[in-house]
Each structure stands twice: as structure tokens, then as C-alpha cells.
Amino acid sequence: MTTTTIIWIICVIAALIIGAVIALWYARNNAKSMASTILEKARLEADVLKKNEVMKGKEEGLAIKSESEKQANARMAKAQAAEAKIKQREMQLNQQQGDLQRKKNETDALAATLEKQGLALEERKKEVDKLEKTVRDTLEHVSGMTAEEAKERLVESLKDEAKTAAASYINDIMDDAKMTANKEAKRIIVTTIQRVATETAIENAVTVFHIENDEIKGRIIGREGRNIRALEAATGIEIIVDDTPEAIVLSGFDPVRREIARLALHQLVADGRIHPARIEEVVAKVRKQVEEEVIETGKRTAIDMGIHGLHPELIRLIGKMKYRSSYGQNLLQHSRETANLCAAMASELGLNPKKARRAGLLHDIGKVPDDEPELPHAMLGMKIAEKFKEKADICNAIAAHHDETEATSIYAPIVQVCDAISGARPGARREVVEAYIKRLNDLEKLAASYPGVVKTYAIQAGRELRVIVGADKISDEETEKLSTEIAQKIQDELTYPGQVRITVIRETRAVSYAK
């Protein structure tokens, strides 16, 4: 490369550098000019915004001032109205004060008149006392006794006669009342029982499903137990398939579920198609049928008993009683029987038989609730009846039929008596013999544990406990205390149907021999 070429290249580079510098200078000047323009424009916009905000603030201030003046005027109007009311009240008080002053003047005048009359009566009383003293002195002189002695003798004579007559009258009344009350009570109860015809044995809810042959057990169990698991899951009932010939046991605490399982099994076995999908379909269908049957049973029962105006939920609970039993006695049949007894007894006593029948039918409604609260069935039944707007006397009769609350309704003792009649009649209830004997032994042992007790006897199927005590160990006053203590301990420690009557007997025997 020649020197001329190098110089030429250097000149070109120098020219490029000078051009770039000139371009940068022009760009810088343009940028400064644009920045100045933008700053000026921003300053103008800021001034406009500032003026707008100032105008807006002034407008808001005027609005606030106007609103404050309105509120002040409103307060002033209220104050003026209150002042007017106060003035009116002041005028009324002044008028009342004038009336009171006038009445006071009239009272003072009346008091002065009464005072004058009182003074006149006092003078009259003094004259009467003087005359009475004169008469008393004359009588004492004639009879030879003072007035106090005559009064005491007369009072003693009348007192002795009154005591004798009263004692005789009270004894006659008590004897007559006891004879009449016992006779009348027996007549009413016997008449009531005779008027109500009932079955002597009640069927219990079915818990055993009978089959024609044991081959059906395998079909019910299914491959690897899938059918029986599906049936238990759908019904909530434990299905026990054991070596019992031609029988399958259905175990569950809910009798409605147990009935659903029984009916579903019956349809499945009759149809022959047993598989999980079919089981769910049949159980849903049967559950709907049972619910409809429950409602229909409740309606039919209410119509048969002549009871109207029951809440639909109460009717459903009455229908559920069909699948509930107590000591082997069907609850619906027991409630119907109690209702009829209550109506008959109310008629004998001159009361309303419809109310009595209603209370008797609903008295055990607390045994079939949808949930399981920790309450006695009588108290739960009262709460259910109150919830569905039953009358107070019906609710009290339900709550008091086991003495768990005070009886304030006249129908409460009727329901209590008829419930006991229905549960205690022959064939009404059944229980395991071993449990029955154990309950009687527990009653006797509990009473025998008290000091002074000689012998104990559980009688009337465990409904009465007779306790014989030594006359030399326990006084008459202590026998009442012992009876109460035994009753309280039985309530706290034992489980029993109905109620148990405790009779403590104390007798003194004097034995002599003639030789």
C-alpha cells in the first residue's frame, strides 16, 4: 500500500469523524429544544389542572356549607318542636297540680268531718263501756262468778264438744271416702278394660328371613361376598348367613331398616337376579315403599282413632311405631290400646274422651325419633309434641306418664294408669326368663342391704317390692325414710319397665302362752 493511499484513507476517516461530531451536536440541540417544549407543555397542563382542582374544591366547600346549613335548620326545627312539647307538658302539669290541690282541699275537709265523727263515736263508746260494766257487775253479783271464769268454763265446754264431734265426723268421712274411692276406682278400671277388646299376644318385628333351601345362601353372598356387602351397605343392616338351616338372620338396631332389608331380600330371591346394581335398585324401591307405608299407616291410625288435626310429621312418627316393639309388645298396638283405654276412662270420669285418646296415642311418640338425643322418651315426646303445636295439657300428659315431670294436666294420671294397664295385662309383654328372674333377685338384694330389714319379697311380676323390717330396729318415722331411700336407689341403679311400688311393713307382735 502506497503513502498516498494511506493519506487518503486517513482523510476519509477524519471526514467521517467530523460528520459524526456535527450530527451529535445537531441531535443534542434538537433534544434540548424538544425537552424545553415538553416541559413548557407540562407546566401549562399543570396550571390548568391546578385551576380545575381549585374550582372543584370551592364547589365542594359550597356544597358542604349548604348541607351544614340544612342540618342546622333541621336541628333548629327539632329544638323548636321539643320546646313546644315541653311548654305543652308544663301546662298539663300545672293543670294537674291545680287538680291535686283541689282534691287535697276536699280530702282535708273530709278528714276534718271524719275526725268530728270519730270524737262522737268515742264518746258513744265510753257510754256503752260504762253500761256494759254495769251489766257485767250485776251478772257477776247474781251468778257468783266473774266474767273471766264464766268465759273460760264456756270455752272449755264448747272445745270438748267440738273435738269429739270433729273427730267422729272426720273418721266417718275418711272411712266413707276410702270405701267409695276404692270401689269407684275399681269400677272405672274394670269397666274400662272390659270395654276395650285387645289381643293377648302381639307379633314382634321379623328379624329372621326364611328361605326355601340353602342354595339361595350362596347366591345372596355372591362371588367373594360382593352381593352381601352391597346389601349391607345399601340397607345398613348386618346380614348373618350361618349354618342355621333355611334361615338368614337380619341384625340391626333400627326396625325400619330391618324391614327394608327383609322386603328387599324377599323381592331379590323371588326375582332371582341378585347382583350389586340390582340390589341398590331394589333397596331404593323398597325404601320408598316402606316410607309410603309408614305415612299411610299413620294416617289410617289417626282416622281409625278419630283424631284430627295432627301435624304430618306426627302422623309419620305414629306410622313408624308399627316397626318398633317394647318388651315384645308392638308399640303401635300398645299406643292404640292405651288411647282406647284413656278414652273409655275419661268418659267414665266425665272428661273429654277425644283429648284423652289423643294423649294416649301420642304418649310414646318419643320412642321413634329420627335422631337419638340423650333424653328419656317421655320428655323427648313432650318436646316433639310442643314442636308441632300440640296443646299444653296433651304435652304434659306425655311428659308425666312416667313421673319424670310434675303432672299439671288432668289427663296425665289417666295416661299413666292406662299405659300401665296395657303393659301389665297378661300376654302383653314378654322378656327372657333369666333376665326376669335376675331383675327380681336384684330388687330383693338391694332392699335387703339396708340395716333393720328382715325379709324382702318382689311380687306382682316385679311391680311391687314388700320390705319387712324389725320393729325393735326401726321406728315408724324411719320406715317412711327407708321406703324413700329404697325407691331412690332402685331408680339410680336398676333398669325396669313401668314403675315399682315399695311397701315397708313394720309390725309388733306380743306372744304369750297359757299353761
Strand residue percentage: 5-15%
Residue-averaged pLDDT: 79
Q: Element order, helices and strands?
A: HHEHHEEHHHEEHHHHHHEEHE
How many strands in all? 8
**Segments where pLDDT lies below 50 for 5+ residues?**
197-206
What percent of residues adopt helix (DSSP H or I)?
55-70%
Strand order of the largest sheet: 1-3-2
Instruction: Give the count of helical stretches.
Output: 14
Separation, N- and C-terminal Cα atoms: 180 Å
Morphology call = flat
Query: What class would the helix/strand composition place it in?
Result: mainly alpha
Largest β-sheet summary: 3 strands, antiparallel
What is the CA-atom radius of gyration, in angstroms? Answer: 50 Å
Protein described:
- The chain is built from 14 helices and 8 strands.
- Mean pLDDT is 79; it is low at 197-206.
- Helix 2 (147-195) crosses helix 8 and helix 8 packs antiparallel against helix 9.
- A 3-stranded antiparallel β-sheet has the order 1-3-2, with helices on one face.
- Helices cover 70% and strands 7% of the residues.
- The protein has 515 residues and is mainly alpha-helical.
